[in-house]
Amino acid sequence: MANLTNHQWVLANRPTEAVTIDNFAPAETGVSDPSPGQILIKVTHLSFDPSMRGQIAENPGYAAAVPVGGVMRSMAAGEVIVSRHPDFRSGDKVTGMFGWQEYALGDPADEALQIKKIPDGVTVEMALSVLNFTGLTAYFGMLAVGQPKSGDVVAVSGAAGATGSIAGQIAKIKGCRVIGIAGGAQKCRWLTDVARFDEAIDYKNERVSRRLRACAPNGINIFYDNVGGEILEAGLSNLAVGARIVLCGAISGYNSGGLPPAPRNYMALIWKSATMAGFMMNHFSERYATASAQLAAWVRDGELKFAIDMQEGFESVPATLLRLFEGRNLGKQLCRIA
Amino acid sequence: MANLTNHQWVLANRPTEAVTIDNFAPAETGVSDPSPGQILIKVTHLSFDPSMRGQIAENPGYAAAVPVGGVMRSMAAGEVIVSRHPDFRSGDKVTGMFGWQEYALGDPADEALQIKKIPDGVTVEMALSVLNFTGLTAYFGMLAVGQPKSGDVVAVSGAAGATGSIAGQIAKIKGCRVIGIAGGAQKCRWLTDVARFDEAIDYKNERVSRRLRACAPNGINIFYDNVGGEILEAGLSNLAVGARIVLCGAISGYNSGGLPPAPRNYMALIWKSATMAGFMMNHFSERYATASAQLAAWVRDGELKFAIDMQEGFESVPATLLRLFEGRNLGKQLCRIA
Known about the structure:
Two copies of one chain form a homodimer.
Chain A: E1 5-11, E2 24-30, E3 39-48, H1 52-55, E4 76-83, E5 93-96, E6 103-106, E7 116-117, H2 124-128, H3 133-146, E8 153-157, H4 162-173, E9 177-182, H5 185-193, E10 199-202, H6 208-215, E11 220-225, H7 229-236, E12 239-247, H8 251-254, H9 268-271, E13 275-278, H10 288-300, E14 308-312, H11 317-325, E15 332-336
Parallel strand pairs in A: 8-9, 8-11, 9-10, 11-12, 12-13, 14-15
Antiparallel strand pairs in A: 1-2, 3-4, 3-6, 3-15, 4-5, 5-7
Helix pairs in contact in A: 3-4, 3-10, 6-7
């Protein structure tokens, strides 16, 4: 493909505290012709997750670190432009771990690439949000780890984010009373008006623990935590006996360079015979197809709403990542690059 | 009982940080004659638990605070000296919440007193340790919360304490490989030589996380934590996938006045799909009799050893409580007062 230039964003250096756009540098390279079995993809949308902060740290919690000088790792969507694989043809829409670059070349059998066709009738936005990692994380975190029962009081932090918003709505579908915690009036309005949460707490303008106590005087049965820090502590202070805390993430601490602030009142787990459980979504990989079909059905039936925060342009990519840690995104953070 | 003087220890003031003997003051009172339905007990042994630190705090985590000026609350053993209750007779040995005093008067039907006869063949030491709260806590914490399976690697902190020593041995009985963490060579020797733990780590002289990694290269399946702080963090750093942390207590922090140090690496629960679960023993109260019978059978069969740290004299009572927080007790801390 001698005529194509592949623009990329590479990791220039590791952030020691907050990630900045200077941690990334533009690069460009050529585009090779696909070998037999390979497909060439023009990347159209990049997907952004808080966990990407861990992947550029010196010591990631789980995934391997992106090497300095390497293309930033990222879930993405694109269109097949050349196929030398029998199951793919030019024009097919796909998702995969294509990274921050304009073109991706690979073998669909390569598990690291996680290439999947986007089915007919599914938008790119849906394929990268509710039907992808963020939706699946919410699905397994809420259903398999949280195990909501009808009548449970469920609180979700980071509730207007891509995962929290889905997790809360799944609890609603299961008959729970759901309280969302988010930053700012706009997000809170979206939670109650669009996503039909029962209550929304604006942590930027309200005292979270006091509002949780008012909204759930008998305590919270499930606290689904994406945030950590003081918001997790507010959850711990308001547990019902036998409560479950689902640990999904701790975005409040991801940008600190060190560890997220630890929950000082973790002993509440003892007084309330409560459980705090973490999970890695890939332990549920055998159930992805079922989960994805269920999520799609809920969306189709209007029971599950999702929001997309779409930024524009390949030059905006590093700045788009920063939006997550500034709490600026409502729903799934994407960037359209073509 | 005009001729009897009841010496007591009352709470003189609340400790703000470490508990000291000056937080308690001696007092004395008369001894009333039992009314119909009551029994009068001469208290012979007092039982000491780390949780007593919480009960003299301004804001206990769970139980009501002992009032300033009130007799210090305590499990104890004694002998009935006057009975006006048809089920009790003079000479019966009993346990109950008699408090730090030489005589206790009450109605066996009063649930707060928790009066129980010590069965024939059971020593006072056994009745106050392995068959009482400490043994039951270990039983339910390990079996119901930890759910050990044969072949699991189990680590116990505070392993030479009254609860930890029983918890670890129960895991051994269930076919686990058991690592104990305790302070000092004497306790560690007791763990391996008497209680038959597979490994003992001396936290005062060894690096706990490094030794845990060496003893459990594939990670710990169950971490039974009595200590909190850095030792809990060492456990979190060495979890196997799907591990359970049983939160029993956090003695390292009880004496700080504030909250125990929070586990800074709690996010390890996510990377390992692990669970941290607290429990209150009274949620298992319907199963006390079964559990106590099982514990007694294990002791009788020689499968379960217990150690008693017996101090002497009513004047030694406050100082005996301090031993727990100084880590001086091996096994159950008792004080004989008559």
